[in-house]
Amino acid sequence: MTRTTRACALICTRVQSTQDRGTKVIRTAAASLPPSTDNKPRIGARRKVRIPGRLTWRDSSGTLRFVSVMTCDVSDLDAFVECQVPASIPLYRLVHFQIERGARECDALPPSLRNGKVLSAVYRVGAYRAATGTPHGYALRLLVEPARSASPKISVVAN
User: What share of the chain has pLDDT > 90, as a percent?
Assistant: First the structure.
């Protein structure tokens, strides 16, 4: 049952139970739910890879912070990482992401992650853990130049 279907069912149930008291519930509330983002195409092909890494960043007071992470999936332009210990990194924070030295030889890793630190931005914060109140993981956009396909050069000749 989708969220919209469930919302319509709850609204209809509420309307039926309150009709004899004169309360009116507007059905258009179910149509105002945000559309699902599941159908949007991804920028790059994601690969399921479980490799240890490290995030480093500076907090609002300028203190250097770091946390050990485990990658869930990676592509050429982004990665989703899960934190090994509770850490709170704000949305859109610039972080340095690097794969642990011993794991850089994995064939599934994009070339940008094999070289060392990659400047990245936190663009999505995962679900929060109930026990700690901190996010379970972070989606990182790797701030690297995307690989361009070789296109034939066109030379312009003036007559």
Answer: 38
